[in-house]
């Protein structure tokens, strides 16, 4: 019996109890899904639910009395061994060994679909992440967002959402001018502008522009700068896209900031807000009444000189996303953007939308690279920052992605290069990948010994404590995925995989899938092979959600 099947049995028990008059409850108030969770103490059973406490007030009876009604009906369900009422009205459910063991077959038969939503949710999500300025290589902070953002997209898709990965291409504004002046200065052998960009990559790009446009330095100075701006941005962005692709991150949409200002999108956003009564004019400027929606002050949208203020692009971009049909716009920003959240949420509300639902903003903290116990602070190529290429070159894509995803984005993290290159259980990505490789090796050895899944499956034979604990961990995977999507926390998947790997390693040490020399193959071996292969599938599914490979050998 899977958690989903137990949840359905609980809902059916409630529905039939209401129909029989045992509980005075409007049928519409019966939960569409009864949440079941794994008790912290295994002595309390396999699964627990607090549904009786949730419904007691509507039923008009003490929670323990509601629990007693559900208990009697649930005890009639095949596969349920015991149902106990604990505390104020919790229901603790213990399954028969055969019912619990059935999960192994369910996982194997579901394959890659295990842990994913049974049908699409219909929700359209626009997930914008990385969006680094095309003025240099992607630094560590952007690399963290690449790993977390892509993993979150995979998790949300597993939860049934339709996700569009979007990169906001900042090709408008002062930083692009500084980039162009930096390239031009380097090409002419001049000192870098005081507010410009440094690093060897500026030399690389400047050299490439000169090769693409022979005679560029013979152009008038203004034309030179425009050429270096146009060609340099294109070259830098091509390099960024290549780095992301090699990191396993592909975007569906690359949205150009400049298009907002050339297509009339800003004017349309202002007109829309004017219709809603959110716009006013003062001192020759156009203002948005963001203070009506929780911002600390109103914001200038168009300055008195007629030029658009920075927020004008945000207004136009958000409206564009909503007009493209996205239910949720999820935006991932760096640690220096905390002050940005209030005005963005006020902007969302000004359009008549719901902050936190139609617009979500995730703030990520800093990443530090450590080697030999000392922070790594400088890249040979970028000059002042450590880049995606630096990290991947040191530890590889899998270790880089896993290490960046396994911690909550709310916390700063130290990436220990020495640890991530170590082939030991101290290295979390190695620990999980090794568990998968071990399941694959078990399957190969089992085949060589004549142990075949198709010959038998008797889940009642899975009675060893390590088998029970492993089954319990496998059963938790769908809920882990659901919670990771709901809370926008893909690190939950990584932490779960580490726990699952630990459970499997203990099972491997205690229970043989292949018989010893001279022993016959029995149904115990065959059934354990189902459990081994179920573990292999869940490890692969979980690693896939993180964009990390599941190796067959290590």
- Quote the beta fraction: 5-15%
Sheet with most strands: strand arrangement:
6-5-4-10-11
* Average of the residue pLDDT scores: 93
Number of strands: 14
CA-atom Rg in angstroms: 29 Å
Alpha carbon gap, first and last residue:
34 Å
Which stretches of 5+ consecutive residues score pLDDT under 50? none
Major β-sheet, in short? 5 strands, parallel
Helical region count?
19
Which range best describes the helical content: under 10%, 10-25%, 25-40%, 40-55%, 55-70% or over 70%?
40-55%
Overall SS class: alpha/beta
Report the principal-axis shape: flat
Key features of this structure:
554 residues, alpha/beta, five-stranded parallel beta sheet, three-stranded antiparallel beta sheet, 12% strand, flat
């Amino acid at each position: 019996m899977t958690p989903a099947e137990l949840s359905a049995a609980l809902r059916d028990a409630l529905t039939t109890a209401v129909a029989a008059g045992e509980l005075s409850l409007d049928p519409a108030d019966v939960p569409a899904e009864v949440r079941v969770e794994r008790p912290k103490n295994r002595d309390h059973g396999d699964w627990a639910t607090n549904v009786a406490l949730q419904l007691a007030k509507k039923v008009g009876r003490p929670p323990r009395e509601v629990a007693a009604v559900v208990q009697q009906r649930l005890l009639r369900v095949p596969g349920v061994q015991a149902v106990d009422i604990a505390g104020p009205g919790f229901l603790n459910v213990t399954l028969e060994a055969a019912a619990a063991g059935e999960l192994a077959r369910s996982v194997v038969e579901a394959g890659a679909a295990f842990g994913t939503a049974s049908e699409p949710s219909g929700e359209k999500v626009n997930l914008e992440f990385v969006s680094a300025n095309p003025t240099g290589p992607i630094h560590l902070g952007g690399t963290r967002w690449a790993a977390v953002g892509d993993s979150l997209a995979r998790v949300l898709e597993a939860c049934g959402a339709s996700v569009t990965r979007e990169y906001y291409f900042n090709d408008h504004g002062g930083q692009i001018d500084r980039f162009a002046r930096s390239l031009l200065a380097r090409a002419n052998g001049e000192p870098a502008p005081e507010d410009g960009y440094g690093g060897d990559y500026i030399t690389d790009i400047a050299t490439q522009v000169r090769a693409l446009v022979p005679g560029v330095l013979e152009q008038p100075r203004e034309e030179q700068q425009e050429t270096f701006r146009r060609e340099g941005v294109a070259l830098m962005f091509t390099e960024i896209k290549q780095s992301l692709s090699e990191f396993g991150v592909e975007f569906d949409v690359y949205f150009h900031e400049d298009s907002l200002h050339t297509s009339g999108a800003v004017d349309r956003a202002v007109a829309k807000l004017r219709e809603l009564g959110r716009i006013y004019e003062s001192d020759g400027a156009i203002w948005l009444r963001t203070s009506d929606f929780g911002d600390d002050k109103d914001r200038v949208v168009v300055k008195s000189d007629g030029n658009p203020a920075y927020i004008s692009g945000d207004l136009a971009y958000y409206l564009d996303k909503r007009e493209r049909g996205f239910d949720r716009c999820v935006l991932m920003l760096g640690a220096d953007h905390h002050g940005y959240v209030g005005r963005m949420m006020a902007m969302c509300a000004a359009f008549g939308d719901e902050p936190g639902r139609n617009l979500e903003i995730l703030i990520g903290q800093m990443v530090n690279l450590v080697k030999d116990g000392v922070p790594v602070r400088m890249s040979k190529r970028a000059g002042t920052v450590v880049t995606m290429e630096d990290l991947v070159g040191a530890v590889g894509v899998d270790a880089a992605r896993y290490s960046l995803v396994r911690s909550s984005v709310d916390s700063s993290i130290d990436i220990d290069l020495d640890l991530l290159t170590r082939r030991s259980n101290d290295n979390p990505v190695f620990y999980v990948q090794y568990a998968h490789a071990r399941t694959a090796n078990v399957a190969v050895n089992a085949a060589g010994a004549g142990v075949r899944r198709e010959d038998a499956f008797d889940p009642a034979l899975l009675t060893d404590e390590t088998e029970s604990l492993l089954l319990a961990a496998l059963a938790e995977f769908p809920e882990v995925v659901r919670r990771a999507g709901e809370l926008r926390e893909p690190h939950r998947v990584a932490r779960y995989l580490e726990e699952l790997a630990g459970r499997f390693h203990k099972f491997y040490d205690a229970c043989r899938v292949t018989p010893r020399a001279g022993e016959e193959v029995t149904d115990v071996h065959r059934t354990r092979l189902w459990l081994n292969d179920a573990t292999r599938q869940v490890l692969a599914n979980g690693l896939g959600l993180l964009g990390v490979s599941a190796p067959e050998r290590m």
